[in-house]
Design goal:
single chain, alpha/beta, eight-stranded parallel sheet, globular, binds pyridoxal-5'-phosphate
């Protein structure tokens, strides 16, 4: 099915108060232009270089989301324009984002990425690491970042009960952080969970942001 029709069908399944990030990684600029023309404004990429290249070629009212792992030495390339970084998993990275945001005279919104899946991956915090990070953050001032919530990826599986449990876990982490550290901070409100295969479960479990690629554009060739 052509992209605009796919988009309309998926859009109808997503409540108005939930942000859909159109995941455009590996897709040529023409496909992003089609999504833009049908009204989409939130696009997500997982690689810095690709994000920077596409941003330069597309309209400036797009909100660009960095959804993949971010190395500290690449923050400077996206700091001038990135809307939300979903993948913060260390204090060092947060400090570098603050540093680069300051140079651009911006405040950059960030989500803490948690490791909630059964699958082994290098990326994402656990609760203990997040506690330590919050402790450290209480002693330093990072005025150019805005911690806005959490992100996580569930196990890639047909076992929907497992996905429910993993997303519920992320919601619990969010609730814990909110009550213990961000009770007075209305900006801490986002739960980014759910992709093509599991976004409906994400929404059922409290997602405020879903990130969808394959359902809109079809299978990616690489990546
Ligand atoms: C690729 C990717 C997505 C989108 O995945 P689809 O299954 O194509 O919808 C969402 N989140 C992250 C972090 C990704 O890397």
């Amino acid at each position: 099915m052509p992209i605009p029709q796919n988009l309309q069908i998926i859009r109808k399944t997503i409540p108005q108060n939930i942000e859909m990030v159109v995941v455009t990684k590996t897709m040529p600029v023409e496909k992003l232009q089609i999504a833009y023309a049908s009204g989409e404004r939130s696009f997500g990429e997982n690689r810095v270089q690709e994000l920077v290249q596409k941003q330069a070629l597309l309209p400036t009212d797009i909100r660009w989301h960095l959804i993949g792992h971010l190395q500290s030495n690449k923050v400077k390339f996206i700091a001038p324009f990135v809307h939300l970084i979903h993948s913060v998993d260390s204090l060092k990275l947060l400090q570098e984002i603050d540093h680069q945001a300051k140079k651009c005279n911006r405040v950059i919104s960030c989500l803490l990425q948690f490791h909630i899946a059964e699958e082994e991956t290098k990326f994402g915090l656990n609760e203990e690491e997040a506690s330590a990070m919050m402790e450290a953050l209480s002693k330093i001032h990072l005025p150019n970042i805005c911690l806005s919530g959490v992100m996580g990826m569930a196990t890639f599986t047909d076992d929907s009960e497992l996905v429910h449990r993993e997303f519920r876990h992320l919601k619990h982490i969010f609730d814990w952080l909110k009550s213990d550290y961000f009770a007075d901070n209305p900006s801490f409100k986002e739960i980014s969970m759910g992709m093509s295969g599991d976004y409906e479960i994400g929404i059922q479990e409290g997602a405020t942001i879903v990130r969808i690629g394959t359902l809109i554009f079809g299978e990616r060739l690489k990546n």
